[in-house]
Amino acid sequence: MNTTVTNEQIQALASTAKPYSLALLHWGPERTKDGADAIELEHQRRMVSLRAEGVIAILCPVGSDTVAGVAIMTVPAGEAAEIMAADPCVRAGMIRCEVHPCHGFPGDALPA
Known about the structure:
4-stranded antiparallel sheet, 4 helices, YCII-related domain-containing protein
């Protein structure tokens, strides 16, 4: 680490933190069930729609045999859990979802 950060800088950043929800999506036991491709397409359509609506601030599919993706959601954890429970892949047992409250810093973004 080459950047020096002061206590004041840490405190200033911390004061801008806003609540978000972190959704961790793990592949479930029914990942390869009959009709999985069509169900996954509807999952993808729904996730991209939630992103377009601002419910998902950052959407990160993960190329892993165990983790399906990560989403930073702009709604409280309880609401995020309800939204994710209605997901086609979650309902089909293809994906398990954990939702955790978290904090983030407005303006943070993935590099272009």
